[in-house]
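Regression check, iron/sulfur cluster case 414:
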Amino acid sequence: MSNDNVAGDLGDPDGSPLPQSAGLKEFRSAGRGFWSHIPDAQWQDWRWQLQHRITSLAQLQRLLPTLTPEEHAGTMLANTKLAMAITPYFFNLIDPADENCPIRRQVIPRLEETTTAAWEMSDPCGEDSHSPVPGLVHRYPDRVLFLVTDRCASYCRYCTRSRLVSNATGYDFHPEFERQIDYIRRTPTIRDVLLSGGDPLLLSDDKLGYLLRALRSIPHVEFVRIGTRIPLFLPQRITSELCAVLRQFHPLFISIHTNHPRELTTEVREALGRLADAGIPLGNQSVLLRHVNNDVHVMRALMQKLLMCRVKPYYLYQCDLIAGSAHLRASVREGLAIMAGLRGHTTGYAVPQYVIDAPGGGGKVPINPDYILHRNADRVIIRNFEGRVFEYPEAADGTPLVPAPLEIEEPELV
Ligand code: SF4
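Current build output:
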């Protein structure tokens, strides 16, 4: 059992503002970049953004002359694994002078993606084996994952569903909405439906309204969630018309997905504000990624900036064992050190739950630094974020509930 004060290793035990975080927390516009000649009405039109995505090597070479040999080769091969697509808006966040730009790493393919480690999988969360009808994953008793499309506004190079999204591997995904809805209607234990994909907010307002209305008409569905990266890749899609559709179907929660504070631009802040003003509680899921956010200053700035955008940090995921993602995967040790640098060092609301989605379909397992040092029948020995040690009696009045065992029982700790 480790008793390291991991937060101490980070050189910031008192949680004081750090100069490294200062620039990270500024809200800036993504700007217009190469598209400065485009009329404003087009730039603000989400369909224009989708139609003008960067999807080919030729486009990328023209727009990013600093393309590295690894990126060049990766882009050539991407269409056999996970297609490349980057909205013009999101492309403007890339720093062309920085080969390790955290935005660039997330969306530009690299040659390393073609290498698969022995422990990597095409379906690391075992979704396909828990699918009673096409497009529905029923892994937990009271909730289902409802996949609506295999398309996203841009494609993340570490995507857990890269077997499916963009259809580069010929997965041939065909959701069957009526069968999916019918299964939910016939299964009264389901009280929670998560719409995901692909990105549900790529559906038209009408189609989304139809789906939400159908789900809401099922009496045992108490709660609907949407998982989306659209507010980050395509904030133009968060129109007042879309918000007017969504606000009819409360309780409706939205989980966004962002990994680096630079993704939180003024455009994104406004788009998230529109969703929040529509009464939609917003949470965020991040993936721990090497060269992107495996740094406590970056992660802390991201979490604090999310709160400024009215979004509660929800999960920090250890990167799934998706085939070809080793170059992006940070270690669990780094993840734990980051969590130790958040808990107690910043607002509790800014601290997500770090989880590993257990390989093969075991579900999310919470992973925490070692705060319990010892535990037996009548007391727990704990340490706080500063490494100070405290004792707490197991029974509220200090009376042991059961006689203490002779040996101290050591809990399973990470
Ligand atoms: S937006 Fe989500 S589903 Fe789409 S590529 Fe990124 S991680 Fe995968």
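Comparison notes: Residues 1-19 have pLDDT under 50 and may be disordered. The pocket of iron/sulfur cluster is lined by residues 152, 155-156, 159, 161, 165, 197-199, 229, 257 (CB under 6 Å). No diff flagged against the previous build.
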